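Question thread 4412

I'm putting together a teaching handout and wanted feedback from people who do this every day. The idea is simple: show students a protein as raw sequence, then show them the structure tokens that encode its fold, then repeat with a second protein so they can compare. Below is the first pair exactly as I plan to print it.
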Amino acid sequence: MPPDAVVPDDAAPDANIGTPSIEGTPVETFTTTSCSTASVMGLSAQIAQEVDCLVPGQLVPFMEVTNLQFTGGAVLPYVAMDAKTDLLAAVAAGGGKIMQINSAFRTVPQQYLLSEWNRLNRCNITITAVPGNSNHESGRAVDIANYSMWITVMEAHGWAHDVPGDDVHFDHTASPDIRGQDVLAFQRLWNRNAPDDQIAEDGNYGPMTEARVKMAPAEGFGIGALCAEARLLPPPIIRLDGELERD
């Protein structure tokens, strides 16, 4: 298949696409066996790519550079374009300080795990949003581990620091809010891989979608994003050190 071929969602799979499959380790497994959303990174990377099909260009990758580090394997390093520009400008204006990023874009299975850990009093999670509603699903949020030394610089570069009780959290409110696109992306991926168990593709996190999130393979579906416009986003950097995730 040519690299720029357009493949409709209902096209029959071929060797270059994969085979529909929901086999793998269910996301729900990690509600009691893990404290890192890196457990669902394979699935989350597919969702990010599908979001890129739905709203091309609304998520762009950023990488570790001098004075910008990721603290753990659960960082999906994607934000809106203007958010990335202002984030890197803040790093450059930091006077040589190292910014430690805990979290950036987050997908619905990641948010589901955080919510469950909070409900089960696990993993020191005390602040969570309902899946589908987290600021991190908006594509314009980051958490910074060493936040206190970055508040003034981040605010000077368009990043608000105003979420009560969540000191690590910053929002780039001038960027588009794409919240819900990760839910829609998951729904599309599920339907593509479970032809006999279709759900509504409405971007809403209801009981039917939650049930499929629990069942979804943490490693990723058999078939991921298909659209010709989807960029090959860089794989997340996986580390073994700890992390703190919140809302």
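The second pair follows. I'd like the answer to focus on this one:
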Amino acid sequence: MPARSALTPEDFGALYFITGSICARCGGPQTLDLGQDDICAVCHGSKTAWKKVRAALVYDDVSRSPILALKRAGRRDGLQLMATWMAVAGADLLSNADLIVPIPLHYRRLVSRGYNQAGWLATALARQTGKPVRHGALTRTRSTPSQAGRSARERFRNVRGAFRVRRSGKQHITGQRILLVDDVFTTGATANAAARALLAANAAEVSILVLARVAREKDVTI
């Protein structure tokens, strides 16, 4: 008997796709139309290593279930559909990207879990778009404690210096416009640390494409 989908038809209808006005930099949904190139107040007051972020969905009570099914239970029954949503949301980033790179897990967590959901999403995107993907170029150098329950400042401190580009991977990164792929964008701490490592290896620029992003502070539960 086929496994029950992690997303019911009723849930699908309630998903919050990010299709309206967004911040040109962080991709966060906006209540006011900022214009094509305008950025939100948070981005005005911050400096990040990545150039742009795009997300298909808002991470909320509805999207949490299929995302956690992918992330924690390893369910791939909706993977191709999720990648399609990401490809639509990140069409501008994908057209500009030379290479897709997934956010890596530390090897201990990868061995324990047996898979990297960001890697699955990156592979699915590469198959749909024809863009090359490089799984081993970026590595996580230390096993950081979970980001769940931490403040934004604690999250940035927790992952600072946690990534580097492998020596064997530098030839694939230098001069390239990199699209980093992950499942969820919360505060941007992990993406920023990974982007810094790629820029240190002379990537031309780094942007971020995720399945979902947190839009409200109360939804920071992952």
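Top answer:
Good format. For the second protein you could add a caption like this: The CA atoms of residues 100 and 133 lie 5 Å apart. The beta strands are 53-58, 99-102, 138-140, 163-165, 177-185, 205-213.
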